[in-house]
Amino acid sequence: MKDRLKLLIHPAIAIAISLAIGALILLVAGYDVGKAFLAIWNASFRNLRTITTTFNKSSPLLYVGLAVAISFRGNVFNIGAEGQLLMGAVFATFVGLYLQFLPGFLLIALMLLAGCVGGALWAFIPGYLKAKYDVSEVITTIMFNYIALNFIGYLVRGPIRDTSQAEPQTVAIAKQGFLPSLIPGTPLHLGYLLGIILAIGLFYLLFKTYIGYEVRAVGLNKSAAKVAGINVQKTIVGTMLISGALAGLGGAIELANIHYLLEGISPGYGFTGIAIAVLANSNPIGVIFSSFLFGFLNAGATSMQRSAGVSASFVQIFQGIMIIAIALASVNKTKLTKKIKKTLSQDTTKTREVE
User: Fold this and answer.
1) What does pTM read for this prediction?
2) In 3D, which of 14, 111, 120 has the Cα closest to residue 70?
3) Pick from 47, 208, 229, 257: CA 20 to 30 A from residue 146's CA?
C-alpha cells in the first residue's frame, strides 16, 4: 500500500521540483519570482472570468491528452495528435461553412462528428501501417503532422481564404455553429463539459469493458495477447482510430470556439498532449487534472509578461522542465512498479504454500 501511494506521489514531486527549478531560473535571470508566480495565479484564479478562461484554455488540451493516453495504453506511440486535431478542425470548417442552413444543434453535432471523422481518417493510415507492416508509427504520425499543417496553410491562403482579412484565415462559420457558453458572460463553453464526460467514459471503456481489456492487453504484451485470442492488428488499428477521433473532436471544438480556421489554430496542442498523458500515467481521469495544469500555465503566460516583465516563453521553458522531471519520475516509477509486482508475486506464492 505504501509503495502504491508512492506511485501517485511521484508526479506531484515532479511538479514541485519543476516549480523549484523554474523559480531558480527566474531568480538567476533577475526577475521577481513572487511577482511572476502571483501574476500567473491572478490571471487564472482571480475571479470567475479568469477561472473560466483557464478551463477554456484547458479544453483542447483535454482532448489531445485523452487521445494520446489511449494510444499509450495500447502501446501505440501516437505523436500525430497535432495533425489529427488540425484535420478535425478542417473537416468541421467545411461543415460550418457550407451547411449554414441547418439549425444550431444539428450543425454543431455534424461539425463535431466531422471532426471525429477527420481525426480518425488521419490516424488510420499510420495505424494500418503499424498493424500490417510494423512501420514505426512515430515516424508516420510526425510526417502526417507536417502534411496537415501545410494543408491548412494551402486552404486558408487559397481556396477558402477570407480576402477581406490581412491574415490568412477563412470567414467565420455559421453563427448557430458557435459553441454555447456554460456560464453566460464567460468564455467557458459546452466543449469542456463534453470533454469531462468523454474522459469518464474513456476510463470506463479502458478498465470496465472487454474492448479496453484488449487494448491494455495488446499494450502490455502483444505476443501474450495473440495467444489469448485477441486480434492484435485489429486492436492496434482500432486504438489509433479512437485516438485520432478524440484529437479530431478537439480540433472541431476549438474551431467552434474561435469560429474560423487559421494556420495558428493550434500552438502545438498535440505535442503538449504527450506531456499531459505522461503526467496522468495515461489515465483518462488523471488527464482531466494534468490538462488543467497546463491550461493554468498557458492562461497565466501573457499576464506574467505584462505584470512581471517575464517573457511568456518562460512558460514553455517551465513546461519543458516539467516534462523532463516527469520522465525521470517515470523511470523510478517503472522500477517501483516492478518491485510491487515482485512483492505481490511473492505474497501470492506464500499464500498458496500455506493453503
Assistant:
1) 0.87
2) 120
3) 257
**Cell numbers placing 206:** 479502458
Q: Cα–Cα distance between 39 and 120 in angstroms, integer?
A: 39
Whole-number pLDDT of residue 346: 54
Nearest CA among 14, 5, 4, 47 for reference residue 278:
14
Which of 208, 209, 211, 214 shows the shortest CA–CA distance to 229?
Answer: 214
Q: Give CA–CA dist 172/174, Å, rounded.
A: 7
Q: What is the pLDDT of residue 147?
A: 96
DSSP code of residue 181 = B
Which residues of the chain register pLDDT less than 50? Answer: 336, 340, 344, 347-348, 351-352, 354-355
Nearest to 264 by CA among 120, 156, 111, 114: 156
Task: State how far the Cα of 284 lies from the Cα of 276, in Å rounded to an integer.
Answer: 10
Burial of 177 (0-12, 13-18, 19+ CB in 10 A): buried
Max Cα-Cα span within the chain: 81
Describe the chain by its helix, strand, coil percentages, rounded to 5: 80, 0, 20
Residue 221 CB coordination number (10 Å): 12
What residue has cell string 516563453? 313
Q: Around Cβ 314, how many Cβ atoms within 10 Å?
A: 21
Q: Which three cell numbers stand for residue 305?
A: 509578461
- The long-range contacts involving 20-26, CB below 8 angstroms and separated by at least 24 positions, are 21/321, 21/325, 22/314, 22/317, 22/318, 22/321, 25/314, 25/317, 26/310, 26/314
Q: What are 152-192's pLDDT values in tens digits?
A: 999 999 899 998 888 899 999 999 999 999 888 888 999 99
